[in-house]
Amino acid sequence: MCALGKAGARSLNAAARAVIPCLWRGKYFSSGKDPVENNPVTPMLRHLVYKIKSTGPITVAEYMKEVLTNPAKGYYVHRDMLGEKGDFITSPEISQIFGELLGIWFVSEWMANGKSAAFQLVELGPGRGTLAEDVLRVFSQLGSVLKNCEISMHLVEVSQKLSEIQALTLTEEKVPLERSAGSPVYMKGVTKSGIPISWYRHLQDVPKGYSFYLAHEFFDVLPIHKFQKTPQGWREVLIDIDPQSSDKLRFVLAPCATPAEAFIQRDEARDHVEVCPDAGVIIQELSQRISLMGGAALIADYGHDGTKTDTFRGFCGHKLHDVLIAPGTADLTADVDFSYLRRAVQGRAASLGPVTQQMFLKNMGIDVRLKVLLDKSTEPSLKQQLLQGYDMLMNPKKMGERFNFFALLPHQRLCGRSQQISAHQSKPSPSPVAGFSELAWR
Ligand SMILES: C[S@@+](CC[C@H](N)C(=O)[O-])C[C@H]1O[C@@H](n2cnc3c(N)ncnc32)[C@H](O)[C@@H]1O
């Protein structure tokens, strides 16, 4: 914290300056969705209607995947949806302190794990590259701590548009980028601070090695299946063409059990559940990599611990948007079920959390960092932005309690202090992990 303490405020981008009028996606309205008056027939709607006419109703997971990441027309593929002119705002865009504290978390884990000679920083769904930029700035400012450690940066991103913005943010294209559209590594370059950086579409293509993984507001955009309990048992929610209008979609229930039903817990007490098998696959891959190669994963998102029911929603222009209207023009998201992520680890790694964003950032020293930045700021408007950003991130009624932090660590990390434990103690006490209270160990 001391080296970082000398650093001042980053110049805030337009999105951050516009923090107050913007909507953050963790905001969840269980009722009273804005009615959308017009239903333009988007190219995505035409594509989906054609698909449903050919093969029948589709699952919500297939719908989300098509709408968000279809390579030709997907919402995420060709637009910048973040910030004032976009559809929503995220924590890294609101305050530099967010990314700085996450950067310190990685350095602290690197130190606790024995200061490896090299590590990869891997971010899933990096948005505009703002979070990565703040984390890398911390690494540069803590250069004396990290000296002799070889760092490389790896971004997993499906969006062509956002990957170009990330490249500009992180490299300023001081060294020309190498592009290779057909290759698993579709872009390569060097960051402003001289770190090699590569872009991939899939986590599986990132080289296996000692790595720190970061996923902020990534898991909530992965496709979910939805199920409704009926007197006949669980039935999957599907999307069909509305019989009243051939260019409108509607939800229907599958007439019989579907294969995805296998993902529902036998003792499930809720009457409506959302399951995200893609999240399970990614968690398994991360846990396996961490257990074999070392490192850690930090996942931050809005979500619940296996308690919520219908959380599927859309956002467009900082407003809630009907998920079936004008597909391809609005973001689609669902709360992350952290209990499902924890089960997906299957004991391969140790998991921590979820703990609230308020608790995590408090434990990481947000108050001290805010004070340093306030003391350094001479402009009243900058001071005000810092205070507003802090309130947005920490206030329990805003992002403080809606967002959660969850971590994966190698089991050895949990037993890191076992050598210091005397023979009569039956259970090693866990090493403290920055940001998480000891209660969060699972
Ligand atoms: C909600 S944005 C969050 C951006 C950023 N992490 C932030 O907090 O500002 C989701 C990000 O994940 C990317 N994304 C969505 N689906 C993806 C997928 N299946 N694989 C890789 N990236 C994906 C989007 O393009 C975008 O960068």
Key features?
442 residues; alpha/beta; 21% strand; five-stranded antiparallel β-sheet; globular; ten-stranded mixed β-sheet; single chain; binds S-adenosylmethionine; Rossmann fold
Task: Provide an overview of this structure.
This protein is an alpha/beta fold and 442 residues long. It has one domain: Rossmann fold (3-Layer(aba) Sandwich). Helices cover 32% and strands 21% of the residues. The protein contains 15 helices and 18 strands. Strands 2, 3, 4, 5, 6, 7, 12, 16, 17 and 18 form a ten-stranded mixed sheet that branches. Strands 1, 8, 9, 10 and 11 form a five-stranded antiparallel sheet that branches. Helix 13 packs antiparallel against helix 14. S-adenosylmethionine binds at residues 68-69, 76, 82, 90, 92-93, 125-127, 131, 156-159, 162, 216-218, 221.
Outline of the structure:
This protein has one domain (2-440): Rossmann fold (3-Layer(aba) Sandwich), CATH 3.40.50.12710. It contains 15 helices and 18 strands.
* Number of spatially distinct domains: 1
Protein structure class: alpha/beta
Beta content comes to 15-25%
What CATH first level would be assigned?
Alpha Beta
- How many strands, what sense, and barrel or not for the largest sheet? 10 strands, mixed
State the distance separating the first and last CA atoms.
Answer: 28 Å
Number of helices: 15
Query: Can you tell me the CATH architecture?
Result: 3-Layer(aba) Sandwich
Question: How would you describe the shape?
Answer: globular
**Can you count the beta strands?**
18
Q: Calculate Rg over CA atoms.
A: 22 Å
Molecules bound to protein: S-adenosylmethionine
Q: From the structure provided, what is the oligomeric state, counting identical versus distinct chains?
A: single chain
Relative helix content: 25-40%
CATH topology-level name: Rossmann fold
Low-confidence region ranges = 12-21, 28-36, 417-426
Chain-averaged pLDDT? 88
